[in-house]
UniProtKB/TrEMBL annotation:
Pathway field: Cofactor biosynthesis; riboflavin biosynthesis; riboflavin from 2-hydroxy-3-oxobutyl phosphate and 5-amino-6-(D-ribitylamino)uracil: step 2/2
Keywords, sorted A to Z: Repeat, Riboflavin biosynthesis, Transferase
Lumazine-binding repeat intervals: 1-99, 100-213
Organism: Kockovaella imperatae
Protein name per its UniProtKB record: Riboflavin synthase
Ranges of residues in domain Lumazine-binding: 1-99, 100-213
Enzyme Commission (EC) number: 2.5.1.9
PANTHER family registered for this protein in UniProt: RIBOFLAVIN SYNTHASE, RIBOFLAVIN SYNTHASE ALPHA CHAIN
Length: 233
């Protein structure tokens, strides 16, 4: 579990394919600020994706990014020299400054606008298709699945950062946030441009609420149907 408060932007030092084509090994360096209490097997959130540390030194760590993660995130777009948002798993004595972030990326979204607003920046996003084939259908499906979890002034995780939704437009299946000046110095989003992809995790509390509601409604319908049949109605 994470808070969405980014601790450090680490640098991609090396990318190696696994021998069995099951993904990539990615090594990040210039990461000393988050490695003082690191152990093999620890979880580190990288651009919003919970990954397991397989090796580490004083200022670098290595993770194995499996094909499942590559298919759902923008980690496959990383190149040597790129920066990535990182956060260690939440400890029991950490101030909870963001919101509950699982590190389970739901989808990627594409930046559709980036507009200055004073010393802040307003971003607008739409959900990205999973592939070039049937792209429109894929993007529409993702929007239909995930848009119900987005509410204005609610939480959203973008590349691992806990941010506040400033707009949600169901008609265009788009959503937006505002990045204040301080956050611009702490997040990789600042360097991204229109057309670039970001990792999205919707609020897990919303998932549980809507998921439970759907199950309860289904259970009530089945009970009602059973009782009506018993009474010959």
């Amino acid at each position: 579990m994470f808070t969405g408060i980014i601790e450090h932007m680490a640098r991609v030092a090396q990318i190696e394919p696994t021998t069995d084509s099951s993904g990539y090994y990615i090594t990040f360096d210039e990461a000393e600020p988050i490695l003082s209490d690191c152990h093999d097997g620890d979880s580190i959130c990288v651009n919003g994706c919970c990954l397991t540390v397989t090796e580490f030194t004083k200022d670098s760590f290595r993770v194995n990014v499996a094909n499942e993660s590559l298919s759902r995130t923008n980690l496959g777009d990383l190149r040597v020299g790129d920066r990535a948002n990182t956060e260690r798993a939440m400890s029991g004595h950490t101030r909870f400054g963001g919101h509950m972030v699982q590190g389970h990326v739901d989808a990627t979204a594409t930046i559709t606008s980036k507009v200055p607003d004073g010393d802040s920046i307003r971003y607008t996003f739409t959900f990205s298709p999973t592939s070039s084939s049937a792209a429109s259908t894929s993007a529409t499906s993702r929007a239909q699945t995930l848009m119900p979890y987005l509410v204005e002034k609610g939480y959203i995780t973008i590349d691992g950062a806990s941010l506040t939704l400033t707009e949600v437009d169901d008609e265009t299946a788009s959503f937006g946030i505002m990045l204040i000046a301080y956050s611009q110095t702490k997040l990789v989003l600042t360097k991204k441009q229109v057309g670039d992809k970001v990792n999205i995790e919707v609020d897990c509390v919303g998932k549980y609420v809507l998921g439970s509601q759907a199950r309860i409604e289904g259970m009530v319908e089945r009970i009602l149907e059973k009782k009506l049949k018993e009474r010959g109605l």
